[in-house]
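U., I forgot to send this yesterday:
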Amino acid sequence: MSNSQKTYKPKPISGFPEWLPEYRAVELKWLDHIRKTFESYGFCSIETPAVEELDVLRAKGEVDKEIYVLERLHKDEDDDSEARLALHFDQTVPLARYVAQHFNDLVFPFKRYQIQKVWRGERPQLGRMREFYQCDIDVLHVDNLPISFDAEIPAMIYEALDGLDIGRVQLRINNRKILIGFLNACGIEAQDEITEITRIVDKLEKIGEDEVAAELKKAGILPEIIEKLLTLARNKGHNLDFTKIQSLNDMMKEGLDELKFVMDTLAHLPDHAAIADLSIVRGLDYYTGTVYETQLLDIPEFSGSVCSGGRYDDLASSYINKKLPGVGISIGLSRLFDVLKQNGKIEPGPKSPADILMVLPSEERRQEAMETARTLRARGYKVEMYHAPQKVKKQLSYAEKKSIPYVWFPPFEDGSDHEVKDMGKGEQSPADPDNWEKS
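Result:
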């Protein structure tokens, strides 16, 4: 390389995480466990393109500032000046488009999971990224979706998260019909006013009751309504007594009945796992019934939700003339992983997936070593070949640095035995590649 040639010093791109192999190994293990849990409930996998048509994404409304538009650096003269494709910012919009497009080929209720990266143009911070994995599950049905799915979704999510060994997680569950019914009973029925109130109430945990009350007052809500609303929102607990919450109209009663059904169905979970929390409303107005948020109880300094979702009546209406109610929830996997990693809660995995390092005695014995490795791979073991006939001490050091648990020594000379070394125990013994079993 010429002395005059400059080198570019690479640096991290803010909001676009990448992990070292030992942490990527843990992330993959998480993904495998989550996928296995979803499939154990009969959910099928789909994958949609990283891009959607810009008009499809914008149909959701008020997300323009988060969208990354996709276009070539050098466009042809006849290219349309208006960008047509963009990276998807969640998996809900792609799902709605997918179901509308493939409606006649799907079996309903359509139960799908989707584990993919999404992209959002927001300011990076702890647990907030511009590129991240989401693990989504949703059930959609034509016209009516049984309330039983509203209970199955959180049960499945708890099982998925509990199996990650990340400490105690808590699902906080509510039903938006309770709040909307309450507001209707107070004479507040305009959709834009309800949307504004729910947006403010959604900030209760973040800014507290006093600030929420001040914002509601500023929005024109009467003090007596604010006090009753905050009193309602204080209802929470694993064994919430629903009989003490007064139903002011049919909608509020329906919401309370649905929430009670969900909580009763989740009674088999540990006491901390799921609570009814009437302060949870979710700020997105397309949620119409059950809503979920999830917290990490063992990391109290992190108050954000790492898993959220809810029921919606007609999310696909922008793409198809069918009523397709659904319920779903999404694990912000990268968000969860980042928070736990930063708090020292993730034990890194091995630097190599290999079970065995195959020692290379000499160039003359490379073929025999490779044949031994093939035999072991055919029996289901992951085997890494050492790259050069270097000193055995150096090859052992390589295995130790990569946390490879076994080192295999093929014959170093004619008539010698195969041997294997257990790196954990420090023991070495004869072995047959056709029938050896790891301890």
